[in-house]
Design goal:
- The protein is built from eleven helices and no strands.
- With 310 residues, the chain is an all-alpha fold.
- It folds into two domains: 1-38; 41-308, MetI-like (MetI-like fold, Orthogonal Bundle).
- It starts with a helix and ends in a 6-residue tail after the last helix.
Length: 310
């Protein structure tokens, strides 16, 4: 009889731990949905970011044309809504007869690869540098922070032009240059936050029981700055897209056969009066993508910051 009573009790104890995480996930989902109902700008941002990601990931599977295929007999065809537009080229063609919509789609893939790679690696490098500087202090802190100050003192565009002119404008070199520009902000912010967190009770308790510096940093301090780093990374993604487009516009960015929105802008600057769409359409796509990323970044900040919740 007693065994029969213990079995339901143990079953209940096994079920309760599994139910609690589900309830927490359900509450988080409800919080996200409630914030989206209140924030229409966030919905617009998610739609724009979704369009950008869709173009980058699925666009090349749908648009099977070659973005570098030149048909000089079809050069400077206007978009379909213009009088001389044709259905074959919805957004028209450029001065070499290349289809604009195909190039826009492949340019989205370039910006996605460079943007996410540069931001993700800059987060890793900067966060580790910030944690190490705050945890170890002394000479280590001085060296890392002085390197950050030197980095901030050098104009990024001049540094990027010099590096890419020497190494070449490949995707890898572009990502490395953007990491070099982006790690500083994460290092400084994470260092400041960790200096505060390392004096709190949970960090003091970990030191009291003999936890190593690395264990405290990785297991206790880094998880507590993750939300802040994600918010900064979301907002910095827009900046990285702009920088990539600017470098490609200047002619030191990615090179053919890779397609870049910045290079498309550069191609159209000599045709603004006769073929406005060559530069205007890539410029509009860049602007809408940046707008969407910034709106999503603002919404992410509101979601991850408990002080901003109702």
């Amino acid at each position: 009889m007693s065994a029969a009573i213990r079995q339901p009790a143990s079953a209940i104890q096994a079920v309760v731990p599994a139910v609690e995480p589900r309830r927490a996930q359900s509450r988080r989902l409800q919080t996200v949905l409630r914030s989206l109902r209140r924030d229409r700008a966030a919905v617009l941002g998610l739609l724009l970011v979704g369009l950008w990601l869709g173009m980058a990931l699925a666009g090349p599977l749908v648009m099977r044309g070659d973005p570098n295929d030149q048909v000089l007999s079809e050069a400077l065809i206007p978009p379909i809504w213009e009088a001389e537009g044709v259905g074959k080229h919805i957004l028209g063609t450029d001065h070499l007869g290349r289809d604009m919509i195909v190039r826009i789609v492949y340019g989205a893939r370039t910006s996605l690869m460079i943007g996410l790679s540069a931001v993700g690696l800059a987060i890793v490098v900067g966060s580790l540098a910030g944690v190490v500087a705050a945890q170890w202090g002394g000479l280590v802190d001085e060296v890392i922070m002085r390197l950050a100050d030197i980095q901030l003192a050098i104009p990024f565009i001049l540094l990027a032009i010099a590096v890419l002119a020497v190494l070449g404008g490949s995707l890898l070199n572009m990502v490395l240059v953007l990491i070099l520009a982006g790690w500083v902000i994460y290092a400084r912010v994470v260092r400041s936050e960790v200096l505060h967190l390392r004096e709190m009770e949970f960090a003091l308790a970990a030191r009291t029981i003999g936890a190593s510096q690395w264990r405290i940093a990785i297991r206790h301090l880094l998880p507590n700055v993750t939300g802040l780093v994600i918010v900064i990374g979301t907002l910095e993604l827009a900046n990285v897209i702009i920088l990539e487009a600017a470098l490609s516009f200047l002619g030191v960015g990615v090179r053919p056969p890779q397609v870049s929105w910045g290079a498309m802008l550069a191609d159209g600057r000599d045709y603004l009066s006769d073929a406005w769409w060559i530069a205007t359409i890539p410029g509009a796509v860049i602007s809408l993508t940046i707008l969407g990323v910034n709106l999503v970044g603002d919404w992410t900040r509101d979601i991850l910051d408990p002080r901003r919740r109702d």
